[in-house]
Amino acid sequence: DSGVTQTPKHLITATGQRVTLRCSPRSGDLSVYWYQQSLDQGLQFLIQYYNGEERAKGNILERFSAQQFPDLHSELNLSSLELGDSALYFCASSAGTGNGYTFGSGTRLTVV
Amino acid sequence: DQQVKQNSPSLSVQEGRISILNCDYTNSMFDYFLWYKKYPAEGPTFLISISSIKDKNEDGRFTVFLNKSAKHLSLHIVPSQPGDSAVYFCAACGGFGNEKLTFGTGTRLTIIP
To answer: What is the mean pLDDT of residues B11-38?
Structure first.
């Protein structure tokens, strides 16, 4: 157990639908990051929150949004889903740089 | 634009020998470099990191070397063990205020018993 909890582990949904992925960071970590891993590709950075505020944005589609709540858990909202959104979505948390980011085990999203 | 590149998608090494995984980057603003190991159906696990002010960092069987002039880093695993079989990702970030990680596409390492 890495200390970063992601739910659900698996999600199957239809095109056009909306889903919410949830992440609880490791205790004490203020930063939460979301990454997307499509088939046979590296992890692509989507967005970072630090203590409730958006800190950095990557190649996140306008159909996707995220937030971090006062208890520091984060949610990634994916809407108007397309087949190409099928991927593994990872959340990571950190207390800082250089000492490694701790990843959750991911949510596998399948859009049919 | 792939700022972090792992040009070998796969590598096979005999058990007990040295495994060398390579990574190249293009962004000279990167400040920290990290290696992650990933098993199927699990999240990446942090292995070892190196700051741009160093050229070597060692942790047990794992050593990371950084050549800033060549914008190249490598991960050495010695001796290689069957449990090392996994996908290894190289990642880089820009330090405080720019902590997002840019990942390479990964190298699948297979240790042959």
So the answer is: 95
